[in-house]
Structure formats: structure tokens, C-alpha cells
Design brief:
The complex is a heterodimer of chains A (about 100) and B (about 250).
Chain A (H helix, E strand, L loop, with lengths): L1 H8 L4 E6 L4 E9 L5 E8 L11 E6 L4 E5 L7 H15 L3
Antiparallel strand pairs in A: 1-2, 1-5, 2-3, 3-4
Chain B lengths: L3 E3 L8 H7 L14 E13 L10 E8 L3 E5 L4 E4 L4 E8 L4 E8 L15 E7 L6 H12 L9 H9 L23 H13 L25 H22 L2
The chains are: A alpha+beta (about 100), B alpha+beta (about 250).
Chain lengths: ~100, ~250
């Protein structure tokens, strides 16, 4: 739930999504859902020669389960706050 | 699951039929057929690599976006269906010559672990409707149906749920509990950890716990105010213990 909330704060930011099949797509994060399915706008593929199929694609919907990494701008998130929030969430879900 | 050949459209009901069926409690929830989210006739579909048995670029037929599967039946009567978990991504592709829906499909056979090397099989599908106006509805229907099929594979959250319900008094249950009773004292490390945890916990008003009693502070120490509170708690437990036998009558 925490990562879902983090992504909700990142809408309209430019992110790069790396899929488990090595495809890397940069685009504007339009929306995210609880399964971390991602909609990107105005996308561009990081390595077009290796992945020619995505040319002329503007918007896409990426299934959450195929995402390996999401690269977000360093200025978009406070890593200290995020670390604390992650620890607190972990502590609360492991409460006896 | 990889793309499966079919010879007839899948069973489905329309949104209206579903609304009628569920307007009152149905006899069985399991027998409600899945809802058709979008149907598009006269689409042209191309698969790369092509499906054996469905040769040729550009096959004309009808597309059925049902909540259970994505299906296509060609004019010839043969077709295929795809499970939504194998659609890794779908997009609207706008080229100067044609506009289409592009889908990337994961064709690794079921049961195989996710391969690290290049060999994970992939298929691409292009759907070209008759009119450009159908593109957005097809894209939206695919997005809705994709979000209806999250992965069932065990992930971190599932593990955590089991731990939440672990029974503390199971023998060997593994939880060492500290209840602040007689003879138990926190070490310096333990006290520091407790202080940190207390600082990040937000208690509802009126439910704050008593302040920690520091043994080194002596009898009349800094925490003189804790004594009345702890004795109140003791009284409470004693009255509870007394009332219990009466309560069972």
C-alpha cells in the first residue's frame, strides 16, 4: 500500500519503467492502481534499436507484475521520509 | 498462459444482462457468465510471430474483450484467446499510415520460472479497427480487464499477513514477550529501542502508557508520578480477577 501511495504522489512526473523483459520506457506517469499497473503518457523507449516495436506509441498501460524497476527523479521524493515511512509500515504490519 | 487457439467465441453476457442478473441476489455467483466489455467487428489482427494454424498477416474477424479473456474469432471460424496476465503492456500506436492497438504478450509456458536470459518468449499483436474512433474504447476496455487479473503468486504482503496472526502462546511460537513483570528489566539497548518505538507511536488521547520506570533513579526518583498509575493498574486487574467468577454464573 505504501508504494502505491508513493506513486500516487508522483503523477505527472517523468519516470523510466524497466520491465522484466529488459524493455525500458520513459514517460509521464499518468496513473497507478493498487496492483501498481502503470499508465504512461508521451513515452519514448530508452534503446530504440533493440526495441523497434514501440515506435509511434504515445500512451501505454503496463501490467504491474512485469515491472522490474521504476526510476523516479531524485527531487521528487524525500528518501529520508520514505525510509522512515517504510520502517513504520513494516512495524505496524508486524505488530503482535 | 500462452495464447490458445479457439474455434468459437467465449461465453459472455452484456453489461445490461449482468446488471439485470445482479439486481437481486442471484441463485449462484459462480454461474454468472463474465461480462463483455467491448466487442469490435471487422478488425484486422496481426501476430508476430504468427500463431500456427492462423497464418497470414492481417486476419479479419471480431474482437471480444471479455472480463475473463481477450478473444478473437476470424471470419474463417478459427481464432485465439489470451489471458490478461500474459498481456505485459498494451498501447495505442499512431503511425502515419495506420492507427492500431499494440499488445506485447508474454508467451512463456505456464509453470516455468521467470527466465533471466533472452529466451522468455514474446509475441506482438496489432489490432486495427475499421475506424479510429474505436481505438480509445478498445484501449480502455483492455485496461479495465487487465486490472481485474492481478497476479496470484505469493509476494511479500501475503507473508506478512501470516505473521500478523501468529499465536503468541504456541510452544516454540518464537515470540519472546516482555510484559514488565517482576524480575524482568530491559537492557540499555532494550530501553533505547523502546524509547524510539514509543516516540514514533501515536496513541489515542487517554490511552498513553505509564512512563518507563528507570531502576537507577532510586525510590523517590524522577518518575515519582508513575507510582499512582501503576497501582491503579494493579487494582484494575485485581477487580477484574474478582469479578470473573461472578460473571460466569
Amino acid at each position: 500500500m505504501l508504494i502505491f501511495s508513493v506513486f500516487k504522489t508522483l503523477t505527472d512526473q517523468v519516470v523510466t519503467v524497466e520491465l522484466k523483459n529488459d524493455l525500458c520506457i520513459t514517460g509521464t506517469l499518468k496513473s497507478v492502481d493498487q496492483f501498481l499497473n502503470i499508465r504512461l503518457d508521451k513515452i519514448s523507449v530508452v534503446d530504440p534499436e533493440r526495441h523497434p516495436h514501440m515506435m509511434a506509441v504515445k500512451n501505454c498501460f503496463i501490467r504491474g507484475s512485469v515491472v522490474r524497476y521504476v526510476q523516479i527523479p531524485a527531487t521528487a521524493v524525500d528518501t529520508q521520509l520514505l525510509e522512515d515511512a517504510t520502517r513504520r509500515e513494516h512495524a505496524s504490519t508486524h505488530k503482535r | 498462459m500462452p495464447t490458445v487457439p479457439i474455434s468459437a467465441p467465449p461465453t459472455f453476457i452484456t453489461v445490461e444482462e449482468h446488471r439485470d442478473l445482479t439486481s437481486s441476489t442471484p441463485d449462484s455467483f459462480n454461474s454468472i457468465p463474465p461480462v463483455l466489455r467491448h466487442k469490435e467487428a471487422n478488425v484486422t489482427v496481426s501476430l508476430d510471430p504468427p500463431l500456427p494454424g492462423l497464418e497470414g498477416e492481417n486476419i479479419k474477424g471480431t474482437l471480444y474483450i471479455v472480463e475473463s479473456v481477450l478473444a478473437f474469432v476470424a471470419a474463417s471460424g478459427s481464432g485465439f484467446q489470451i489471458d490478461y496476465p500474459s498481456i505485459t503492456l498494451h498501447a495505442v500506436k499512431r503511425e502515419p499510415t495506420r492507427v492500431s492497438i499494440y499488445c506485447q504478450l508474454d508467451e512463456t509456458p505456464e509453470g516455468q520460472p521467470l527466465p533471466e536470459d533472452e529466451d522468455s518468449e514474446m509475441r506482438e499483436m496489432f489490432i486495427v479497427p475499421e475506424t479510429e474512433d474505436s481505438l480509445e474504447p478498445i484501449f480502455e476496455a483492455l485496461s479495465i480487464c487487465a486490472s481485474l487479473h492481478p497476479d496470484k503468486a505469493g509476494d511479500d504482503d501475503e507473508d506478512m499477513e501470516d505473521e500478523m496472526f501468529a499465536d503468541a502462546d504456541e510452544s516454540g511460537g518464537g515470540f519472546e514477550t516482555f510484559a514488565g513483570g517482576e524480575g524482568e528489566e530491559l537492557s540499555a539497548v532494550g530501553r533505547a529501542a523502546l524509547a524510539h518505538l514509543e516516540s514514533i507511536i501515536v496513541y489515542p488521547p487517554g490511552r498513553e502508557p505509564p512512563a518507563v520506570v528507570e531502576p537507577e533513579d532510586g525510590v523517590n526518583g524522577v518518575n515519582g508520578t508513575t507510582e499512582p498509575e501503576t497501582s491503579e493498574e494493579e487494582d484494575l486487574t485485581q477487580t477484574e480477577a474478582q469479578s470473573l467468577p461472578n460473571g460466569t454464573h
